[in-house]
Amino acid sequence: MPAPSPDTALAALLDLMVRLREGCPWDREQTFATIAPYTIEEAYEVADAIAREDLGDLREELGDLLFQVVFHARIAEEQGAFGFVEVAEAITRKMVARHPHVFGDATAHDAARWEDMKAGERAAKAKGGLLDDVPLALPALLRAAKLQKRAARIGFDWPDLLPVLDKLEEEIGELRAEIAAGSGKDRLADEFGDMLFVMANIGRHLGVEAETALRGANGKFERRFRHIEARLAEQGRSGPQQLDFLDSLWNEAKALERA
Questions:
Q1: Which residue pairs from 189-197 have beta carbons closer than 8 angstroms and sit at least 24 positions apart in sequence?
Q2: Where would you tag: which of 115, 146, 148, 164 has the fewest CB atoms within 10 A of its CB?
Q3: Do the domains spanning 6-124 and 126-208 agree at the CATH topology level?
């Protein structure tokens, strides 16, 4: 049996969505707001499959994410706003406009030009300032870097990395002072947030995405902690252990990774 064409496969998915909205009580009661968290979750699961280099999972997760797009488009179509066709046409027009070196006469196209085009698009539809369309739903570290990048467009940015590192030292000092003063959680959270914001800025100046770097650190912690658990199990140990002993197992895990 021949494989279905892209048009056939997409038409089947769109028809499925119509039937779900008409026949499933749960699907019928959903709104943009109620399914937005699922959309974000599916995007993260796509990123996770990529990080694990699992192409089988990636295929499944991309399907889940596509379903979210179809879901939103169907709700909009029911409201008479737009449908999936308009979504596809809009992104096609945008990508054609952003690639004049492919679809036009331009011969040069680099990251800076791409950002200029995006800035022009934002300016054309902007109703406020540079920061207005940075999505609130983004992970906080990622959003911090985007806010900083936007501000840098008018020169509000450190000239290089060293002043940002100095700023981090300053923020650490302010957090220490609040801790020493026995400040409440609100003050501590405020200073801790300032420190994280500076960390995102350091990542931006290094060309390292803070969110990605933290994911890597999380993975490293998981690997090393699992080594600790395995070694404890080998020795028949359970329950809380002396920190010095656990730290020695942590260092053992680090040495094994480096080897």
A1: 195/168, 195/171, 196/140, 196/141, 196/144, 197/144
A2: 115
A3: yes
Answer whether CATH 3.40.980.10 is correct for domain 126-208: no
Cα 71–73–78 angle (5° rounding)? 95
Tokens coding 2: 């021949």
Tokens 């480096």 map to which residue? 258
Largest distance between two CA atoms of the chain = 74
Q: Compute φ and ψ for 160, nearest 5 degrees.
A: -155, -175
What gap in Å lies between CA 28 and CA 35, rounded to an integer?
Answer: 12
Each domain of the chain, given as residue ranges in start order, spans: 6-124, 126-208, 212-258
1-41: per-residue pLDDT in tens? 677 888 999 999 999 999 999 999 999 999 999 999 899 88
Query: pLDDT tens for residues 53-83?
Result: 999 999 999 999 999 999 999 999 999 999 9
- For the chain, the 3-state helix, strand and coil shares in percent, each to the nearest 5, are 75, 0, 25
Domain 6-124: state its class: mainly alpha
